[in-house]
Design a protein that fits this description.
By secondary structure, the protein is mainly beta. The protein has a single domain, classed as Dipeptidylpeptidase IV, N-terminal domain (Methanol Dehydrogenase, Chain A). It is built from two helices and 15 strands. A hairpin with a 4-residue loop joins strand 3 and strand 4. The longest helix has 9 residues. The protein starts with a strand and ends in a 15-residue tail after the last strand.
Length: about 230
């Protein structure tokens, strides 16, 4: 079953996700497989529960370039996220009454102080190989100490930090013409924002906006797309 699909702007290709792997289908018949590591804990082109519900408000995490020759997509690894069991008392069929004993559904759910999914942005040039968006992070004293020692909550459980790296959140991806991609990121507590401009020609990324909010947080605002 296909998880998600989106037409290219040229309407000559369609990108789709099958079993958490990204494919590109040309309307003339050829199919290109973009990723091959998708599985129960690795998501390519689609969001896991955390990012679908809390960040993107959509399952789809694929963005075509305006010229339809590049594809940006999200890669999520939630292997370190603990499992939480949710009880369901409502049956699948509406003709049945409430269940006397609940059914339990396991989901990867990061409580405060426990690992979030690790998220990265990849860019795929059609006919080429996908590459990960990376940049040199400017370490500050606050980030370095938190990454080394972490913060132990009042109950002593887990390690909560506001560092970046594997702890960051990707909150939006937007093409700025055919050769530039803007990636919006925050730290886990969302009081520190970075705008990262990606040049797909040179495969380089540069921080073009770096802002902190000492008295609040940066709200995620998503511009809904037609799919």
């Amino acid at each position: 079953m296909i998880d998600y699909a989106i037409w290219s702007p040229s309407a000559a290709k369609i990108a789709y996700v099958l079993n958490h792997d990204v494919y590109i289908r040309d309307m003339y018949g050829s199919t290109e497989r973009v990723t091959s590591d998708g599985g129960a804990e690795v998501f390519n082109g689609v969001a896991d529960w955390v990012f679908e519900e809390e960040v993107f408000t959509s399952a789809g995490c694929i963005w075509w370039s305006p010229s339809s020759d590049h594809l940006a997509y999200i890669h999520i690894n939630e292997s370190l996220v603990p499992v939480y069991s949710i009880p369901y008392y409502i049956p699948d069929s509406t003709h049945e009454g409430p269940l006397a004993y609940p059914e339990f559904v396991d989901i990867k759910y990061p409580k405060p102080g426990y690992p979030n999914p690790v998220v990265d942005v990849y860019v795929h040039p059609l006919g080429g190989k996908p590459w990960k968006v990376v940049y040199t992070e400017p370490l500050e004293k606050r980030d370095l100490l938190d990454d080394l020692f972490g913060f132990v909550g009042r109950d002593g459980a887990g390690q909560e930090t506001d560092g970046w790296g594997d702890k960051k959140l990707v909150t939006n991806v937007e093409w700025m013409g055919d050769r530039m991609v803007m990636v919006s990121e925050t730290n886990r507590v969302s009081d520190h924002y970075r705008g990262v401009l990606v040049d797909v020609t040179t495969q380089t990324a540069t921080i073009v906006r770096d802002e902190k909010n000492e008295e609040g947080w940066f709200e995620v605002v998503i511009r809904h797309r037609m799919t």
